């Protein structure tokens, strides 16, 4: 993509400069293969509040240290925890805890547990204690295969995060993105830390605009395998994929409704890109409104009643809101002259988008109540912002040091993560929903 390419796009011949950028991809067969392009995570910054915590190695099996290391890495990535060194310290779930000793070491909280294996199945028991109040905050048991240990570790980190901060953790959620390596394109999903990537679609033609269903079981996306952009819905567990929008002209920018029964899409069937809704099975096409200029990049509000979208109806691209049932559109961004690629936080309190300032494409966040804006990134080429399902972080694509990377930033701008691909270019990221 060039610097002028927004996140969700259609064919260049029918779009203005600010909507240019459909890559060039065509269909491959679904392949649930593990990719070799693991992501490396670099972290900078700390949260306004940091909770001191020690995580001991889980006792009883050689995998206990690996489980603890994944939990430590998750907590570190959030920027909200200060890790007290407990590497090499092994405690089992029934250990008697010397609260004063851990408090003197600087740990207000201690996580620990046990792990055992029987016939290839692992049993993991975990505990979280408050060393100041000298009380247990959480304790639960998990079971799974060796392949499931990473997922279980993320789930434990989620529980720790929520018990201490009061906010649900997102470590066990997933992300989706497009990886380009040479002339090959892959639609991948991965853990939120960029690990465990799997290829959902491999192609010699472009795949753009992946969008998670609310239950996390399906992805909608745009593929160019038919020689033009067509919207597909793919079931992740089976690989089954169905074209749901293959109308005359361009079919692009799918976004799921909160109930998972409909999608908002953009069609140019009437010569100009306009917003429609369609049922998830491809039936029930309905035009939302009529505009003399381009409307694109729709996304539903959390209550499902309205759509947030990008339009140049005011002369420059800005972000608007319209009832799903149709009606008058209300402009909601007024800072700057170029704002695209909107995403609304799960609580609907904040809007994140790409803005062009001084020639750089940057990620901005706007409070929906006050209208106040904060520029979160410096650019020069940041795209495709997507909220974590707890609303605490934002995933986006970026060019840093000449490399295409995925990046994550906290909503207050304090904590930054860079998920760097070992090879290839990563773009079009979207953060998946809570699934349990």
Keywords:
436 residues; mainly beta; Neuraminidase; Rossmann fold; 2 domains; five-stranded antiparallel β-sheet; five-stranded mixed β-sheet; 32 strands; Tol-Pal_TolB; Tol-Pal system protein TolB; periplasm; cell division; WD40
Could you characterize the architecture of this molecule?
With 436 residues, the chain is mainly beta. It has two domains: 12-27 and 173-431, 6 Propeller (Neuraminidase); 49-165, TolB, N-terminal domain (Rossmann fold, 3-Layer(aba) Sandwich). It is 9% helix and 44% strand. It is built from three helices and 32 strands. The strands form eight sheets. Strands 1-31-30-29-28 form a five-stranded antiparallel β-sheet, covered by helices on one side. The longest helix has 17 residues, at 149-165. The model is unreliable at 1-37 (pLDDT under 50).
